[in-house]
Structure formats: structure tokens, C-alpha cells
Amino acid sequence: MNQQIPFQIPKLFKFQNEKTMPLSQRRIVKDKDTKIKKKIAYRYQILHKPGTYMTDFEMRKLVHEIREVAATAFNPIPEYQAMRGTRDELSDKVIALAWDKSTLAGFASTVELYVPTIGNILHLGLTVVRPEHRSNGLTHLLMQKAITSYILKNAIYFDKLWITNCAAVLSSLVNVALHFEEVYPSPKKVTYTPQHKIIAETINILYRDKLFIRPDSYFDNKNHVFKNSVKDTVFQKDASDTAYYHRNIEYNNFYKNLMDFSNGDEILQIGYASIPAAIRHAVFNTMKGFMPQ
User: With helix as H, strand as E and coil as C, how does the chain read?
Assistant: First the structure.
């Protein structure tokens, strides 16, 4: 005698048949669906060294769009990075743009720097998103797209792409420490390699202007702190302004204790990105969803 075994969908896949649900619950589902449909579908654009191929008109238009977004975060707009608008400044940039129809919602502008004995590295530079778009995760996504595009374009499949970040913004410092490999300085135990040292020395000597570091700023090479780096500029932060803090309290406190906000200090971070490391992170993050809480 054949026994019929009822088919059951595993709880892991929460499919729902709306017709079998009470009317009140159906309305909730429809409301959720409506919210999902309202989510903005951004159009992304990656520009590799646009100063090497854009016409003067195209460059002026690009810089105008970038400065409009920058004006939502800075007053006055600093003469720095892509905002300077010169062909030279746009010739070493990898810029990720997010468009909401015809409006630029945000940008991430990274800088390619040459370091002797190591080669080209990528400075994470500057990311700005319009206030009305900041809740959509664009800050992380734009930087991710810029870095991924650079790795693929330069065929850095199994090697390391060394990256740098120089900031007083705690959320920026913590995110870099959490999402890149062998980042120094960091609360995690990190081996300080000759590569870390060479990159730090090269930036200190050659690339202060590229990173908006004052010429008279003292570099504490033990803690990787540029003293008085952004004093009295739009980049100086107030220690009491928690809007720039990360949710990770341990990491916040680590970086807070390294610098003096009132002095305009900034921390130079050095680490690397790689495709194998990105795969490890992706697998780990996926597995975390199946781990008991």
C-alpha cells in the first residue's frame, strides 16, 4: 500500500501563500512589498583615471557634479582631490559614481600612488553621499565598487593590493580595520612588515598633498599618527560628535586613544585587499547566518 507523504517546505525558506492568510496579514505583506518597490535602483559608473582621456568639457561637467555632492558635506568645499578639477588631479583617480536618474547621489574617489619596491597602491581617499541617500548603504558600496574594479582591471587576482586610509573619522577607521587585511594600526594583532614601513615612509615624504596632510604635520611613525594634520580645516572632528562614531565600541576607543581631536590629528592606516581574502570574508559572513545565536 502506497503511503502518501505530505510535502513540507523547510522553515529555512519562508514562502507564504497570501490567499491563505488573514486579511490583516495580507495588508502587511502588501505594505512591505510597496516599501521594497520604492527602493532606489542606482546606476553605477566607474571612471579609471578620467583625466587621461576626458575632454575639457567632460571634465568640467564631472567636477561640477562632484562638487555639488561635496557641498552637502563640506562648507567650504576643500580644494582637494577630484574637487580641484585639474587634469593632473583626475589622472590618478579611480572614481565610483552612483546616479539616481540624472542626479549624482554620491561618489568615492580613490588615488593610485606609486611606492618604490612595492608598486602601485590605492589610497581610499574620499567618499561623499548626499544626506537623503545616506541610509541606503552607498558609502560602503561605492568604495567596494571602486576597489573591486581596480583589482579586476589590473588583474590582481592572487596578489595583494595594498591600501591606505588617513582619517580622523572613527567610523572610517573602524570600517577599514574590520574589512581589510593586516591593517596597521588596529586593535587586532598585526605583524608590522617592511611593506607597512615603506608605504608609511613614502606617504610621509612624497604624498602629503595627495592625502591633505599639512606640510608641517609631525608624523608619529610608531602609532601612525599625523599630528596637527587637519587642524582648523573642514576635516577636523570633535571628539564629542558621536555622529562620526562606529557601533563597535572597542575599536572606537582604540582609535580615540591614539589621536587628539582638538589638535587635528589623523591616523594613517595601511593594509591590503585581495580576492582570496574577500572570498574568505564572504564565506564566513554567509556561515554566520547558519550559526546558533
Answer: CCCCCCCCCCCCCCCCCHHHCCHHHHHHHHHHHHHHHCCCCCEEEEEECHHHCCCHHHHHHHHHHHHHHHCCCCCCCCCCHHHHCCCCCCCCEEEEEEEECCEEEEEEEEEEEEECCCEEEEEEEEEEECHHHHHHCHHHHHHHHHHHHHHHHCCCCCCCEEEEEEECCHHHHHHHHHHCEEEECCCCCCCCCHHHHHHHHHHHHHCCCCCCCCCCCEEECCCCEEECCCCCCCCCCCCCCHHHCCCCHHHHHHHHCCCCHHHCCEEEEEEEECHHHHHHHHHHHHHHCCCCC
* Cα 15 to Cα 13: distance, rounded to the nearest angstrom: 6
Beta bridge partners of 122: 112, 163
With beta carbons less than 8 A apart as the criterion, state whether 125 and 108 touch. yes
Question: Per-residue pLDDT for 278 more than 70?
Answer: no
What confidence score (pLDDT) does residue 266 get? 97
For domain 39-155, the question of CATH label 3.40.630.30 is answered with: yes
Grid cell, residue 203, equals 606617504
Question: What is the rounded distance in angstroms from the CA atom of residue 286 to the CA atom of residue 61?
Answer: 41
Q: Which of 226, 243, 236 is nearest to 185 (CA)?
A: 226
Q: Is the pLDDT of residue 240 over 80?
A: no
The amino acid sitting at 54 is M
Residue listed under C-alpha cell 486579511: 23
Is pTM beyond 0.85 here? Answer: no
CB 176 within 8 A of CB 183: yes
Per-residue pLDDT of 75-101, as tens digits, reads 999 999 999 999 999 999 999 999 999
End-to-end alpha-carbon separation of the chain, Å?
44
Portions of the chain given CATH number 3.40.630.30: 39-155
